[in-house]
Amino acid sequence: MKKSRLPMVLLGVGLAFLYLPILLLVVYSFNDNRSLTVWTGASLRWYHELIQDGQMLEAAWLSLRIAFATACGAVVLGTVAGLMLARFGAFRGRALFAGMISAPLVMPEVIMGLALLLLFVSAEQLIGWPAGRGVLTIVLAHITFTMSFVAVVIQSRLVSMDVSLEEAAMDLGARPAKVFFVITLPIIAPAIVSGWLLAFTLSLDDLVITSFVSGPGSTTLPMIVFSSIRLGLKPEINALATIVVAVVATGIGLAGFLEARRARVREREESQAGKA
Amino acid sequence: MPPPTAAAPQPSPALPPVAPRTVKDRVLRVTRRLGLTGRGGVILGPYAWLVLFFFIPFLIVLKISVAEPAVGIPPFTKLIEWVDGGLDVHIRFSGFQALFDDDLYLLAYLNSLKIAFVSTLCCLFIGYPMAYAIATAPEKRRGPLLMLIILPFWTSFLIRVYAWMSILKDEGLLNNLLLSLGIIHEPLKILYTDLAVYIGITYSYLPFMILPLYATLEKMDHTLLEAAADLGARPWKSFLTITLPLSLPGIVAGSLLVFIPAVGEFVIPSLLGGSDTLMIGRELWNLFFNSRDWPSASAVAIALLAFLVGPIMIFQHFQGRDQDKGAA
Questions:
Q1: Could you give all domains of chain A from N- to C-terminal order, each with its CATH number?
Q2: Which residues cross the membrane (chain A) (predicted)?
């Protein structure tokens, strides 16, 4: 059967559509001109202004701390949730649980943000906790919506995993908890790492839910970025975007490199085992 | 921690005749009674979290949508109050009433549905060939190509929307390019119009369309296509009669992953859309942050949720099928 070249061409066009805007952003972050669309010369002016913007740096630091706490919380809850869905079979209330864990994947953020804020306000009225809104309420809200994404990652890894290892351990008398910590956890460790990173990124990037549940003094980076670009273009944001892209590209590149090396090592070991 | 053995509540048969001596024993007994040991205890964590932070909040939204707005903190009245020894119930539906009285909200709902629907179609038409190309690429290249699709998702959503602002504005890169090529003679007004919102949503949500499509296309049995070709079917015919129907689950899942959040989208219409781009997520935001009318904002949220409950259930049905495969 002759294979059509059309899909490959369209894939190229699609990838250009995905990457061109980001590329332009990076290129123009080195532009000296304020207008952002006329190239007048290369300069690091906007990077310089960015690192002198104390408000933005403070918000970035706050966002990083929130994202770290969120990722740690979400990875624990999300891993257990993924385990429940993939391994626990039918437990009481499974349908409700499956619904609650997958709804945040698509739920419009304005609704989740409003709902969580009203929860925090009502809880404060009722039991006096959480007192006011700030970092704590942001982290609680972020864990709630990111744990769903972690659960999906973990669950799909567990589904594709070879169950016979777990079964063998259980046949040999290992208790469920021991099987999980000794067999399952090491195998799904890469998925847990990507779940952690996913939760971290989602938390770092969230604007809408954060705006609802944040309080005075807890202004995160996306909130600052949003309020400054709402009024028009701001070259500093290009510099910020370039830094984000550079960090992400380095991270992904490193992960890809490590993965490739691991695959090579495995291949070599397998071929040696074959010879032996 | 109790040993994670007992899964169901069971009366411990070998209880000592004397009362438990230590606190630990006592705690153990209670947890075992409640079925919280082992599996039960593991389930409790995420379950309780989701009930508390996901389920209950919606009940509260429902409650406040029928409260009266008030000046104060928080800006709504209590539903039930003890007044002079009697129960006083305040329930009003004026928040919902306003949704029907004021054309603004109805128009915003309809416009949101329209924008989300058209953007979903755009994502499907752009995303399908891309997913197809990756799924039919040599196996070694699929991973890296898929990575390229996911990569933009790891950079900031806000920044990707911002990128389009500098491309689409009147003296932006697109207009400059078209002007210098002589295709147009006056700058096109794209930024701050509905068109920019379509572009923004399509761009931002494209990976969500491609991934489920790829997942179904990749699993497809390619010998079916070979058989069709052997029997004389032209490529287009075998695509329409074999590939397309088989990828239907991916099409539905991808479309819902784009459509549902797009209906309630706030960031894209407020950055790329004009002041006349009505979208319900934006109206909800304005009601809440600008008018500080929490009950009406809650009513808008409930109405929006009512629109989306159908699509969300279909999404969960597809999502659940994968989960059941895992449970089996």
A1: 57-232 (1.10.3720.10)
A2: 9-30, 66-85, 97-123, 135-158, 179-202, 237-258
